[in-house]
Structure prediction request, 367 residues.
Amino acid sequence: MPRLLLIIPTLDRSGAEKQFCLLAEGLSKQGIEVEVVALTRGGPMEAHLAAADVPYSILGKRNRFDLTALRKLRKFIIEREPDVLLSCLFAGNSYSRLATIGMGSRRPKILISERCVDSWKSSWQHWLDRRLRSRTDLMIANSQSVSDFYAAGGFPKDRIRVIPNGVVSPSQPELTKAELCEEIGIPAESKLIAFVGRLAPQKRLKDLLWAMQMLRHSRPDAYFLLIGEGPQRSELEYFAQDADAATHSRFLGHRDDAASLLHLIDVFWLASEFEGMSNSLMEAMACGKPVVVSDISPNRELVEHGKEGWIANLGDPAGFTQYTLKLLEDPEAAQKIGAAGQQKMESEFSIKQMIDRFHSLIAEVCS
Prediction:
C-alpha cells in the first residue's frame, strides 16, 4: 500500500485546499495510506478530514521562511517514511522540496501541484522554483494553460502531467431565494448575478462593477452579489459608490454557504486576468447556471462561447453587460446554456475522475 503525504499551506476552505482534502478522502478510500500536513494553520477543512478518518497535522509556520517549521516538516517526513510527497501552491511546493535536501536514497518521490497561471510570482520566487526543479519528479498542472505557462518558463515538458480539478455539485441552500433577497435588502423577484471568490486585483472586480452600473439601467431588477473577502474589499466598496453601482451591488463577505447560494442565482460572472481552473466557476456550472467569463485560456478550457456560457474580452465591462442581458431576456436560452454546463461538469470534471487520475499517477510513480 503506497504511503502518501499531502502538504498544503492551510486547512482553509479555499479552492486548492478543498480540492486536496477531497483528494485525500478519495485516495484513502482507494487503499492509499494518506496523511495531510498543513504548514501554517488549521481551518474549516479539519472537520472534513476528521469525518473521512484522514489523519492530519498542523506545523504552525509563522512567516515566509520559518526554519522551525521546515525542520518540523523534515522530521515528520523522516518519521513517516512516505513513498510520495504531493504538495500544492508555492509554500507547499517549496517546503516539500527544501525539507528533503540531503535525504539521498531515503527521499520520497516528490510531486508538486501548480494551480494557477502564476504571473504574480516575483523574481525571487521564480528563482527558487528554478533551483528546485531538479528535486521535482513530476509537476501536476490543473489545466493545460498552467502546464503551458510552466513549460514556457523552462520546466521540462516530459515531467508535467495535467489533471483537471474535480467538482462536486454544491448542496442545496438552507434558505430560499426570497429569504436571501430579504436578508440583503432587495426585492424578492430580483435577478441575481454573482461572483464568488477572493476580492483581489487579479479578479478585475472593478470591471464587473462597471458592468453592473451599465446593466442596472436596462435591468433595474438585477443585482450583483460579491461573495467573499479579500484585500480589495474596502477599495471596491468605495469604487462601487463612485461608479454609481452601489445601489445594485451587495458585498456579502465570507459565507460558509457560498457554494450553495449558487443554486439561487441567475448568472455567474468571472472577469479574472489569470486563473488556474476556477473552482467557483465550475461549481456555478455544476449548479446549471449560465456564466459570463473573461477571455483567458483557463476559462476557455471550461466554457465554449455560446454553448456553456459567454466569453467577454478581458477588461470589457460592456461585453459582460451585453451577454448578461442576452441571458436575462431569454430565460429559455439561459436554461439551455446552464444545462450544457452542468452536463460538461458531470461528464468531464467529476471528483471521481480527478481521484482516479491521481491514483493512477501515484501507482505509476511508485512502480
